[in-house]
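For the sake of clarity, the format in which proteins appear in this thesis is described at this point. Each number in the token line that follows is a code from a learned vocabulary of backbone shapes. One such record is shown here in full, so that the layout can be seen directly:
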Amino acid sequence: MMVQGHTVFIITLLLPLGDSNTTSVVVGCIVGVILLTLAVLLILWYFKRKSDYQRFMVKDIESPVWIAGEKTTLNCEAFNCTGDVKVIWVIKLKDGTKHEVSDMGSSDKEEEQPLMSREYEVTKECDSQKMKGHVTTKLTFIPSISRHLGSTVSCRIAHQKKPVEKTFDVKSIYGKPKFVEPVQFTLSDQGDIQISVKLQKFYPQEMELGWFSKRGPSEEKIPSEVMKSNSGGTFDLESKCSVSGELFKDPTYKVIVRWKHQSMKESQSREMSVRDLPWHPKLQKFPIESVFQGDEVLLQCRVSDYFPDALTVKWFERKMGSQDLEEISSSQKYKILESTSHRMENQTFSSTAVLSYKRFDLSEKGVEFICRAEHPSLGIPIQTSIVQYRDTGNYNYFINYS
């Protein structure tokens, strides 16, 4: 008898029945036949398992998490390959368009799909040292939510003219949210600041977002509103909150917006302080004006477009020919008038600093007067200067933002 290439001999014994010895012989023969049969089956099972182990096999496609706009690589492995192995990857988009790309390049006609060979890259590696007949093929490309979500990717590996195909259904692609700069700040009539941020092109729709007010080490959640919209298969978000402008008088005060999406390993955040506000102090075109009232001179320095109302103005003098700079304070020689901030139409503030002195108290060589403005929104103060003389009304002024 032949069984899968192996010869099996079955011996049948015909013995007369009658006495107990004969019965014992028969039973022994039957047991022997059973044991022999089991041995044959065990041998057949061993050879079959060995044959299965050495059979050409292709694993399922291995895929990472897909992130739109980021390079993605799919792996497919084949084992027990002999001879030439051909690989073809097939991408079937959800609109029905099909592209076939092999390790030899795109099978699409170049005039029909001129970009396809550059969009999809296929590699094939044969690793005979790691495992005999082991082949790894990779498909690399940059996925798009609008094109690839809902598509099908297949890997077809042909070995000895017997192709095996594995298929992967693209059920999810994540789109990382993009933070849109700059942050939008709006002033209200009541002096509150509305802060608005935008996140674009994320998928899926679910997003965790919160606003926080931070003074020192502690944080306090701020009420906010969120508006979402759908754009080209992805989602956009705009979130707003309002805080009192008075809080930004403290340079250490911060507003934090924090968001977390499925496409992100960790949450991200954006901090905003008074330095981020767009309303920094500005000096007027002709910064310091001289107003003559008899022998008294008034120097006027106007600063505008700042918020919050936390401006500090200081006056300094430097005698011509000297490098020494001295801060001016009210005295018999100089008077510093108290300045008041005024609200402008754009809800920012302006004020005019005034220094008065007796014209004939100046040195004949002249004196340089410096008006310096400090504000929490500035990294360094801004200043302007004017040179005044005792005998004439001539003067020169200079603006210095550094």
